[in-house]
Design brief:
globular, 420 residues
Length: 420
Amino acid sequence: MIFEGFVNAETAFLGAVFALALLLGVAANKTNFCTMGAISDWVNMGDLGRIRAWLLAIAIAMLGVVILEMLGLIKADAAFPPYRSAQFIWAENLLGGVLFGIGMTLASGCSNKTLIRIGGGNFKSVVVLVVIAVVAYYMRNPFPDSDQTLFSLLFYEWIRPLAIDTGAAQDFGSLLNPDNALMTRLVIGMVLGLAVLVFVFKSVDFRRSRDNIFGGIIVGLVILGGWYVSSNVEINVDGELYSLSDYYSEWDMLADSNEGKPAMGRPLSPQSFTFINPMGQTFGYVGSGLNRSMLTFGIVALLGVIVGSFLWSLVSKNLRFEWFASFRDFVSHVIGAVLMGLGGVLALGCTFGQGITGVSTLAAGSFLALIAIVFGCAITMKVQYYKLVYEEEASFVKALVAGLADMKLLPNKLRKLAAV
Protein backbone atom coordinates (compact mmCIF):
# COMPACT_ATOMS: atom_id res chain seq x y z
CA MET A 1 0.00 0.00 0.00
CA ILE A 2 1.99 2.92 -1.36
CA PHE A 3 0.85 6.55 -1.20
CA GLU A 4 2.23 9.82 -2.50
CA GLY A 5 1.74 11.85 0.70
CA PHE A 6 1.75 11.30 4.44
CA VAL A 7 -1.78 12.56 5.07
CA ASN A 8 -3.25 10.22 2.43
CA ALA A 9 -1.23 7.32 3.80
CA GLU A 10 -2.24 7.93 7.42
CA THR A 11 -5.89 8.44 6.47
CA ALA A 12 -5.96 5.13 4.60
CA PHE A 13 -4.14 3.47 7.51
CA LEU A 14 -6.66 4.70 10.08
CA GLY A 15 -9.56 3.86 7.74
CA ALA A 16 -8.35 0.26 7.37
CA VAL A 17 -7.95 -0.02 11.14
CA PHE A 18 -11.51 1.25 11.66
CA ALA A 19 -12.86 -1.31 9.18
CA LEU A 20 -11.04 -4.14 10.97
CA ALA A 21 -12.26 -2.91 14.34
CA LEU A 22 -15.82 -2.68 13.02
CA LEU A 23 -15.61 -6.33 11.98
CA LEU A 24 -14.18 -7.24 15.38
CA GLY A 25 -17.05 -5.47 17.15
CA VAL A 26 -19.67 -7.25 15.07
CA ALA A 27 -18.05 -10.69 15.44
CA ALA A 28 -17.37 -10.39 19.19
CA ASN A 29 -20.93 -9.26 19.88
CA LYS A 30 -22.54 -11.88 17.63
CA THR A 31 -20.51 -14.81 18.97
CA ASN A 32 -20.20 -13.62 22.58
CA PHE A 33 -16.42 -13.81 22.26
CA CYS A 34 -15.32 -12.95 25.79
CA THR A 35 -12.16 -13.88 27.66
CA MET A 36 -13.66 -13.51 31.11
CA GLY A 37 -16.68 -15.49 30.03
CA ALA A 38 -14.39 -18.18 28.64
CA ILE A 39 -12.51 -18.44 31.93
CA SER A 40 -15.79 -18.43 33.87
CA ASP A 41 -17.17 -21.29 31.74
CA TRP A 42 -13.98 -23.26 32.40
CA VAL A 43 -13.65 -22.54 36.14
CA ASN A 44 -17.32 -22.80 37.10
CA MET A 45 -18.69 -25.36 34.63
CA GLY A 46 -15.71 -27.16 33.13
CA ASP A 47 -16.84 -25.95 29.67
CA LEU A 48 -13.89 -25.23 27.37
CA GLY A 49 -15.91 -24.05 24.37
CA ARG A 50 -15.05 -20.35 24.58
CA ILE A 51 -11.52 -21.09 25.79
CA ARG A 52 -11.05 -23.04 22.56
CA ALA A 53 -12.41 -20.08 20.57
CA TRP A 54 -9.85 -17.83 22.25
CA LEU A 55 -7.07 -20.34 21.59
CA LEU A 56 -8.20 -20.57 17.96
CA ALA A 57 -7.77 -16.81 17.62
CA ILE A 58 -4.31 -17.05 19.19
CA ALA A 59 -3.27 -19.89 16.87
CA ILE A 60 -4.43 -18.06 13.72
CA ALA A 61 -2.68 -14.84 14.75
CA MET A 62 0.51 -16.67 15.72
CA LEU A 63 0.71 -18.75 12.54
CA GLY A 64 -0.03 -15.71 10.42
CA VAL A 65 2.59 -13.52 12.10
CA VAL A 66 5.46 -16.03 11.90
CA ILE A 67 4.68 -16.85 8.25
CA LEU A 68 4.19 -13.26 7.09
CA GLU A 69 7.20 -12.11 9.08
CA MET A 70 9.30 -14.71 7.31
CA LEU A 71 8.03 -13.26 4.01
CA GLY A 72 8.94 -9.74 5.10
CA LEU A 73 5.30 -8.61 5.26
CA ILE A 74 5.12 -7.99 9.02
CA LYS A 75 7.66 -6.09 11.11
CA ALA A 76 6.94 -7.21 14.66
CA ASP A 77 10.45 -6.38 15.90
CA ALA A 78 9.55 -2.68 15.66
CA ALA A 79 6.16 -3.10 17.36
CA PHE A 80 4.34 -0.60 19.54
CA PRO A 81 4.26 -1.51 22.37
CA PRO A 82 7.68 -3.21 22.20
CA TYR A 83 6.64 -6.79 22.93
CA ARG A 84 10.08 -8.14 22.03
CA SER A 85 12.08 -5.55 23.95
CA ALA A 86 15.40 -6.75 25.37
CA GLN A 87 14.15 -5.51 28.76
CA PHE A 88 12.26 -8.49 30.16
CA ILE A 89 9.93 -6.79 32.65
CA TRP A 90 8.79 -10.07 34.15
CA ALA A 91 7.61 -8.60 37.46
CA GLU A 92 5.48 -6.02 35.65
CA ASN A 93 4.06 -8.71 33.37
CA LEU A 94 3.15 -10.86 36.36
CA LEU A 95 1.81 -8.18 38.71
CA GLY A 96 0.08 -6.29 35.93
CA GLY A 97 -1.48 -9.46 34.59
CA VAL A 98 -2.82 -10.52 37.99
CA LEU A 99 -4.21 -7.03 38.70
CA PHE A 100 -5.85 -6.95 35.28
CA GLY A 101 -7.34 -10.44 35.75
CA ILE A 102 -8.81 -9.46 39.13
CA GLY A 103 -10.05 -6.18 37.74
CA MET A 104 -11.80 -7.59 34.72
CA THR A 105 -13.67 -10.04 36.96
CA LEU A 106 -14.86 -7.27 39.28
CA ALA A 107 -15.78 -5.07 36.30
CA SER A 108 -17.68 -7.86 34.50
CA GLY A 109 -15.39 -8.17 31.49
CA CYS A 110 -12.06 -7.35 29.91
CA SER A 111 -11.35 -4.15 28.00
CA ASN A 112 -12.66 -5.50 24.69
CA LYS A 113 -15.83 -6.78 26.37
CA THR A 114 -16.28 -3.34 27.93
CA LEU A 115 -16.35 -1.82 24.44
CA ILE A 116 -18.70 -4.53 23.16
CA ARG A 117 -21.10 -3.87 26.04
CA ILE A 118 -21.03 -0.13 25.43
CA GLY A 119 -22.09 -0.82 21.85
CA GLY A 120 -24.89 -2.98 23.23
CA GLY A 121 -26.27 -0.19 25.45
CA ASN A 122 -24.55 -0.98 28.76
CA PHE A 123 -23.96 2.30 30.61
CA LYS A 124 -22.10 0.51 33.42
CA SER A 125 -19.38 -0.16 30.90
CA VAL A 126 -19.21 3.55 30.01
CA VAL A 127 -18.23 4.23 33.62
CA VAL A 128 -15.67 1.42 33.47
CA LEU A 129 -14.21 2.84 30.26
CA VAL A 130 -13.91 6.36 31.71
CA VAL A 131 -12.17 5.12 34.87
CA ILE A 132 -9.77 2.90 32.91
CA ALA A 133 -9.03 5.77 30.52
CA VAL A 134 -8.11 8.19 33.31
CA VAL A 135 -5.96 5.66 35.17
CA ALA A 136 -4.21 4.44 32.01
CA TYR A 137 -3.55 8.02 30.87
CA TYR A 138 -1.90 9.05 34.12
CA MET A 139 0.08 5.82 34.28
CA ARG A 140 1.85 7.11 31.15
CA ASN A 141 1.49 10.89 31.47
CA PRO A 142 2.37 13.27 34.32
CA PHE A 143 -0.29 14.82 36.51
CA PRO A 144 -1.06 18.49 35.83
CA ASP A 145 1.75 20.78 37.07
CA SER A 146 3.87 17.75 37.95
CA ASP A 147 6.53 15.51 36.46
CA GLN A 148 5.16 12.44 38.27
CA THR A 149 3.01 9.72 36.72
CA LEU A 150 1.04 7.03 38.52
CA PHE A 151 3.67 4.55 37.37
CA SER A 152 6.56 6.58 38.78
CA LEU A 153 4.75 7.16 42.07
CA LEU A 154 3.53 3.62 42.69
CA PHE A 155 5.82 1.24 40.83
CA TYR A 156 8.95 2.52 39.11
CA GLU A 157 11.48 2.60 41.94
CA TRP A 158 10.86 -0.93 43.19
CA ILE A 159 9.64 -2.86 40.16
CA ARG A 160 11.70 -1.59 37.23
CA PRO A 161 15.05 -2.68 38.83
CA LEU A 162 13.72 -6.26 38.72
CA ALA A 163 13.75 -6.21 34.91
CA ILE A 164 16.24 -8.51 33.20
CA ASP A 165 18.28 -7.36 30.22
CA THR A 166 18.21 -10.31 27.82
CA GLY A 167 20.78 -8.67 25.56
CA ALA A 168 18.58 -9.26 22.53
CA ALA A 169 14.88 -9.50 21.77
CA GLN A 170 12.87 -11.54 24.28
CA ASP A 171 10.91 -13.61 21.79
CA PHE A 172 11.55 -17.35 21.91
CA GLY A 173 13.30 -17.34 18.55
CA SER A 174 15.85 -14.72 19.64
CA LEU A 175 16.34 -16.28 23.07
CA LEU A 176 16.90 -19.81 21.73
CA ASN A 177 18.79 -19.03 18.53
CA PRO A 178 19.84 -15.37 18.22
CA ASP A 179 21.89 -16.11 15.08
CA ASN A 180 18.78 -17.21 13.17
CA ALA A 181 15.86 -15.89 15.18
CA LEU A 182 13.55 -15.52 12.17
CA MET A 183 13.69 -19.18 11.16
CA THR A 184 13.53 -20.33 14.77
CA ARG A 185 10.40 -18.22 15.33
CA LEU A 186 8.85 -19.78 12.24
CA VAL A 187 9.50 -23.31 13.52
CA ILE A 188 8.34 -22.58 17.07
CA GLY A 189 5.28 -20.68 15.86
CA MET A 190 4.28 -23.39 13.40
CA VAL A 191 4.68 -26.21 15.95
CA LEU A 192 2.91 -24.31 18.72
CA GLY A 193 0.16 -22.95 16.48
CA LEU A 194 -0.61 -26.32 14.91
CA ALA A 195 -0.59 -28.03 18.31
CA VAL A 196 -3.13 -25.50 19.57
CA LEU A 197 -5.31 -26.09 16.49
CA VAL A 198 -5.24 -29.84 17.13
CA PHE A 199 -6.33 -29.27 20.74
CA VAL A 200 -9.05 -26.85 19.68
CA PHE A 201 -10.62 -29.02 16.98
CA LYS A 202 -10.34 -32.38 18.69
CA SER A 203 -13.49 -31.45 20.63
CA VAL A 204 -16.63 -32.67 18.87
CA ASP A 205 -18.73 -30.09 20.71
CA PHE A 206 -16.46 -27.29 19.52
CA ARG A 207 -16.59 -28.50 15.93
CA ARG A 208 -20.37 -28.22 16.14
CA SER A 209 -20.28 -24.69 17.56
CA ARG A 210 -20.45 -22.32 14.61
CA ASP A 211 -20.33 -19.20 16.77
CA ASN A 212 -17.18 -20.26 18.61
CA ILE A 213 -15.43 -21.24 15.37
CA PHE A 214 -16.54 -18.08 13.59
CA GLY A 215 -15.56 -15.87 16.54
CA GLY A 216 -12.12 -17.42 16.91
CA ILE A 217 -11.36 -17.23 13.18
CA ILE A 218 -12.51 -13.63 12.76
CA VAL A 219 -10.70 -12.38 15.87
CA GLY A 220 -7.49 -14.13 14.81
CA LEU A 221 -7.70 -12.71 11.28
CA VAL A 222 -8.45 -9.20 12.58
CA ILE A 223 -5.35 -9.32 14.79
CA LEU A 224 -3.33 -10.49 11.80
CA GLY A 225 -4.90 -7.78 9.67
CA GLY A 226 -3.83 -5.13 12.16
CA TRP A 227 -0.23 -6.35 11.96
CA TYR A 228 -0.32 -6.43 8.16
CA VAL A 229 -1.85 -2.99 7.64
CA SER A 230 0.41 -1.25 10.16
CA SER A 231 3.50 -2.87 8.62
CA ASN A 232 2.75 -2.12 4.97
CA VAL A 233 1.53 1.44 4.58
CA GLU A 234 4.33 3.33 2.83
CA ILE A 235 4.93 6.79 1.36
CA ASN A 236 6.74 7.32 -1.92
CA VAL A 237 9.15 10.26 -1.73
CA ASP A 238 11.02 10.72 -5.02
CA GLY A 239 11.15 6.97 -5.59
CA GLU A 240 12.18 6.10 -2.03
CA LEU A 241 9.69 4.35 0.23
CA TYR A 242 9.17 5.33 3.87
CA SER A 243 7.01 3.70 6.50
CA LEU A 244 4.75 6.02 8.51
CA SER A 245 7.09 5.95 11.52
CA ASP A 246 10.21 6.48 9.38
CA TYR A 247 8.60 9.43 7.61
CA TYR A 248 7.65 10.93 10.98
CA SER A 249 11.20 10.60 12.30
CA GLU A 250 12.50 12.51 9.26
CA TRP A 251 9.59 14.92 8.98
CA ASP A 252 11.70 18.09 8.87
CA MET A 253 13.65 16.76 5.89
CA LEU A 254 10.73 15.29 3.96
CA ALA A 255 7.73 17.54 4.63
CA ASP A 256 7.20 21.14 3.54
CA SER A 257 5.33 22.10 6.73
CA ASN A 258 3.97 20.64 9.97
CA GLU A 259 0.46 20.41 8.53
CA GLY A 260 -0.87 16.89 9.11
CA LYS A 261 1.96 15.93 11.47
CA PRO A 262 0.80 13.57 14.26
CA ALA A 263 1.50 14.51 17.86
CA MET A 264 3.45 11.30 18.45
CA GLY A 265 5.53 8.99 16.26
CA ARG A 266 5.53 5.71 18.19
CA PRO A 267 1.81 4.97 17.57
CA LEU A 268 2.66 4.86 13.84
CA SER A 269 4.81 1.75 14.35
CA PRO A 270 3.70 -1.79 13.41
CA GLN A 271 1.08 -2.98 15.88
CA SER A 272 -2.23 -4.72 16.31
CA PHE A 273 -5.20 -4.61 18.62
CA THR A 274 -4.86 -3.75 22.29
CA PHE A 275 -7.25 -1.62 24.33
CA ILE A 276 -5.96 -0.38 27.70
CA ASN A 277 -3.33 2.10 26.50
CA PRO A 278 -5.68 3.27 23.70
CA MET A 279 -8.29 4.05 26.35
CA GLY A 280 -5.72 6.35 27.94
CA GLN A 281 -4.93 7.80 24.51
CA THR A 282 -8.64 8.46 24.02
CA PHE A 283 -8.72 10.43 27.27
CA GLY A 284 -5.86 12.55 25.94
CA TYR A 285 -7.58 12.92 22.57
CA VAL A 286 -10.81 14.16 24.16
CA GLY A 287 -8.82 16.46 26.45
CA SER A 288 -7.11 17.98 23.41
CA GLY A 289 -10.45 19.03 21.97
CA LEU A 290 -10.47 16.15 19.46
CA ASN A 291 -7.27 17.34 17.85
CA ARG A 292 -6.73 15.37 14.62
CA SER A 293 -3.01 15.06 15.36
CA MET A 294 -3.82 12.97 18.45
CA LEU A 295 -5.62 10.22 16.52
CA THR A 296 -3.91 6.82 16.72
CA PHE A 297 -4.43 3.21 15.68
CA GLY A 298 -5.68 2.48 19.20
CA ILE A 299 -8.23 5.29 19.39
CA VAL A 300 -9.70 4.43 15.99
CA ALA A 301 -9.77 0.72 16.93
CA LEU A 302 -11.62 1.51 20.15
CA LEU A 303 -14.25 3.53 18.31
CA GLY A 304 -14.59 0.90 15.59
CA VAL A 305 -15.29 -1.91 18.06
CA ILE A 306 -18.00 0.14 19.78
CA VAL A 307 -19.65 1.05 16.47
CA GLY A 308 -19.44 -2.54 15.19
CA SER A 309 -21.03 -3.86 18.38
CA PHE A 310 -23.73 -1.19 18.22
CA LEU A 311 -24.58 -2.05 14.62
CA TRP A 312 -24.91 -5.74 15.44
CA SER A 313 -27.06 -4.90 18.49
CA LEU A 314 -29.41 -2.99 16.17
CA VAL A 315 -29.50 -5.73 13.53
CA SER A 316 -30.06 -8.49 16.08
CA LYS A 317 -32.47 -6.35 18.14
CA ASN A 318 -30.39 -6.94 21.28
CA LEU A 319 -29.78 -3.30 22.19
CA ARG A 320 -30.56 -3.10 25.90
CA PHE A 321 -29.81 -0.25 28.27
CA GLU A 322 -28.36 -1.31 31.61
CA TRP A 323 -27.25 0.50 34.77
CA PHE A 324 -25.81 -0.56 38.11
CA ALA A 325 -28.00 -2.82 40.20
CA SER A 326 -26.80 -1.25 43.47
CA PHE A 327 -24.16 1.01 44.98
CA ARG A 328 -22.14 -2.09 45.79
CA ASP A 329 -22.27 -3.07 42.13
CA PHE A 330 -21.01 0.43 41.21
CA VAL A 331 -18.10 0.23 43.68
CA SER A 332 -17.12 -3.23 42.42
CA HIS A 333 -16.99 -2.02 38.82
CA VAL A 334 -15.00 1.11 39.69
CA ILE A 335 -12.43 -0.88 41.69
CA GLY A 336 -12.21 -3.37 38.84
CA ALA A 337 -11.70 -0.55 36.33
CA VAL A 338 -8.90 0.97 38.43
CA LEU A 339 -7.14 -2.39 38.63
CA MET A 340 -7.56 -2.92 34.88
CA GLY A 341 -6.05 0.49 34.16
CA LEU A 342 -3.08 -0.11 36.47
CA GLY A 343 -2.58 -3.73 35.47
CA GLY A 344 -3.08 -3.29 31.74
CA VAL A 345 -0.39 -0.61 31.51
CA LEU A 346 1.99 -2.50 33.81
CA ALA A 347 1.62 -5.73 31.87
CA LEU A 348 1.89 -3.91 28.49
CA GLY A 349 -1.54 -5.07 27.44
CA CYS A 350 -4.84 -6.78 28.12
CA THR A 351 -6.42 -10.08 27.10
CA PHE A 352 -6.18 -8.88 23.51
CA GLY A 353 -3.02 -6.77 23.71
CA GLN A 354 -0.92 -9.41 25.40
CA GLY A 355 -3.18 -12.46 25.26
CA ILE A 356 -3.47 -12.51 21.45
CA THR A 357 -1.46 -9.71 19.83
CA GLY A 358 1.58 -10.05 22.09
CA VAL A 359 1.51 -13.84 22.14
CA SER A 360 1.45 -13.84 18.34
CA THR A 361 4.97 -12.33 18.43
CA LEU A 362 6.18 -15.24 20.65
CA ALA A 363 7.41 -12.72 23.25
CA ALA A 364 8.19 -14.33 26.60
CA GLY A 365 6.64 -11.42 28.50
CA SER A 366 3.37 -11.82 26.61
CA PHE A 367 3.03 -15.47 27.60
CA LEU A 368 3.83 -14.55 31.21
CA ALA A 369 1.25 -11.76 31.22
CA LEU A 370 -1.35 -14.07 29.69
CA ILE A 371 -0.83 -16.71 32.38
CA ALA A 372 -1.04 -14.03 35.08
CA ILE A 373 -4.28 -12.61 33.65
CA VAL A 374 -5.92 -16.03 33.56
CA PHE A 375 -4.77 -16.77 37.12
CA GLY A 376 -5.97 -13.41 38.46
CA CYS A 377 -9.37 -13.88 36.85
CA ALA A 378 -9.76 -17.54 37.87
CA ILE A 379 -8.79 -17.08 41.53
CA THR A 380 -11.08 -14.06 41.86
CA MET A 381 -13.98 -16.13 40.55
CA LYS A 382 -13.12 -18.89 43.00
CA VAL A 383 -13.07 -16.47 45.94
CA GLN A 384 -16.38 -14.91 44.86
CA TYR A 385 -17.98 -18.34 44.51
CA TYR A 386 -16.89 -19.59 47.94
CA LYS A 387 -18.03 -16.38 49.60
CA LEU A 388 -21.39 -16.70 47.84
CA VAL A 389 -21.89 -20.32 48.91
CA TYR A 390 -20.62 -20.05 52.50
CA GLU A 391 -21.63 -16.42 53.09
CA GLU A 392 -20.44 -15.21 56.54
CA GLU A 393 -18.49 -18.40 57.24
CA ALA A 394 -16.17 -17.74 54.32
CA SER A 395 -13.62 -15.05 55.14
CA PHE A 396 -11.51 -13.76 52.29
CA VAL A 397 -8.53 -15.81 53.47
CA LYS A 398 -10.54 -19.02 53.78
CA ALA A 399 -12.09 -18.51 50.35
CA LEU A 400 -8.67 -17.74 48.85
CA VAL A 401 -7.08 -20.87 50.35
CA ALA A 402 -10.00 -23.00 49.14
CA GLY A 403 -9.71 -21.52 45.65
CA LEU A 404 -5.96 -22.12 45.50
CA ALA A 405 -6.51 -25.69 46.69
CA ASP A 406 -9.09 -26.20 43.93
CA MET A 407 -6.48 -25.00 41.44
CA LYS A 408 -3.91 -27.45 42.88
CA LEU A 409 -1.68 -24.56 43.99
CA LEU A 410 -2.01 -25.40 47.70
CA PRO A 411 -2.37 -28.78 49.42
CA ASN A 412 -5.97 -29.80 50.11
CA LYS A 413 -5.30 -30.22 53.83
CA LEU A 414 -4.94 -26.45 54.26
CA ARG A 415 -8.51 -25.69 53.20
CA LYS A 416 -11.06 -24.72 55.84
CA LEU A 417 -14.01 -24.83 53.46
CA ALA A 418 -15.22 -27.99 51.78
CA ALA A 419 -14.90 -28.02 48.01
CA VAL A 420 -18.00 -26.92 46.11
